[in-house]
Amino acid sequence: MSVTTGLCAVSSHAGRQYHFVYELKNWTEARSYCREKYTDLATIDNMEDMNTLNSMVDLSKMADIEYKHRAWIGLYDDVDSWRWSLSNRTFYTGSQAEFRKWQTKEPNNQHSGEHCTEMYSGLWNDINCEARLMAVCLNITGSDVTFVLINKTMTWTEAQKHCRTNYTDLASVRNMTENEMVKQLVPAGQTVWIGLYRDSWKWLDGSNSSFRYWHDVEPNNRGLNETCVAADFSHSGQWEDWNCDFKREFVCYSAQTEAEGPRRESRRCQLSWRKQADGKVFHKVEKKTEKKTKKTEL
After folding, report:
1. End-to-end CA distance of the chain, in Å?
2. From CA 250, how far away is CA 234, in angstroms rounded?
3. What is the three-class DSSP state of 159?
4. Which among 182, 162, 186 has a CA at the least distance from the CA of 172?
5. Which residues form the C-type lectin domain (predicted)?
6. 271 pairs with which residues across the strands?
7. CA-CA distances (angstroms) from residue 231 to 24, 32, 203, 207, 210?
8. Are 75 and 219 within 8 A, CB to CB?
9. Are the C-beta atoms of residues 72 and 27 closer than 8 Å to each other?
10. In order of start, what are the domains of the chain with their CATH numbers?
11. What confidence score (pLDDT) does residue 72 get?
């Protein structure tokens, strides 16, 4: 028997295809380029994806600039995603959930982790959630809405847990009247937590991937407004937060459609031809024109 062995492409699972673009653009320009040419700036789900990017990158093609070998990816800090701890929409009517009383030039995300809100003299400021402050809880009984001052210091998360355990939630402030009610509860010169916080890092394409690959001490918002993310391929692609106006290379991805087929995996296949009794492998097929049938001579 004569045997020939080859390789076949067999489907495994659908995935993303990454594309390095060795052109210098700011994060917004890179996003526009990726959306025009591919799908979006790169979303990264796990270390397997990072290993793929590390194996693909060609450092010799990256520009010799300050902080070189870094490329934009699709993770960003959504600084406008403020929401209330009490998420029940029936508690808010009209635009009440969007009421804000920020201090001038706030929120400013001045330091890393300023994702929670404090009130001082009736004005609001974004602050790191690990700060320890007093808190104001919200208590709802039927149609009655009251506010309660908690006269001990806690982190924002601890305050949220305390309010949810003993009352309804951390304070939601829906209008100027309620803002004044909370202000009157707080001793002069004191600062308190209220229930406003923001979602932080998100993927451009809306992916819910929670995978993160930050470099040590990152994100640090060191230069202020560092709301975009670059992978440092001189350090295994670890991530850093950067001001979005920096120009650098970037990584796009294209979503694999059903028509294009999924990622390929190699599988071995066997092809074989069997010799017949007369020693031949192939035989001529004669056509019977009367019946228009085919017959193979054995």
Report:
1. 17
2. 14
3. helix
4. 182
5. 13-138, 147-253
6. 4
7. 14, 19, 14, 18, 16
8. no
9. yes
10. 9-78+203-255 (3.10.100.10), 82-198 (no CATH)
11. 98
Nearest to 228 by CA among 22, 66, 31, 36: 31
CA dihedral 126, 130, 134, 135 (to 10 degrees): 70
Q: Which two tokens stand for residue 200?
A: 């932080």
Q: What is the pLDDT of residues 153-206, one digit of tens each?
A: 999 999 999 999 999 999 999 999 999 999 999 999 999 999 999 878 899 999
pLDDT for 37-92, tens place per residue?
999 999 999 999 999 999 999 999 999 999 999 999 999 988 888 999 999 989 99
* Tokens matching residue 140: 């709802």
Pairing of strands 169-170, 144-154: unpaired
Report the distance separating Cα 40 and Cα 75, nearest Å: 11
Q: Which two tokens stand for residue 22?
A: 């060795």
Q: Is 83 exposed, middle or buried (0-12, 13-18, 19+ CB in 10 A)?
A: middle
CB 241 within 8 A of CB 212: no
Q: Is 217 left (phi over 0), alpha (psi -120 to 50) or beta?
A: left
Where b means 16+ CB within 10 Å and e means fewer, 266-279 reads eeeeeeeeeeeeee
Backbone angles phi, psi at 163, to 5 degrees: -65, -40
Rounded Cα gap, residues 203 and 76, in angstroms: 6
Q: Which residues lie closer than 8 Å to 296 by C-beta, 6 or more apart? A: 283, 285
Compute and round to an integer the Cα radius of gyration of the chain.
31
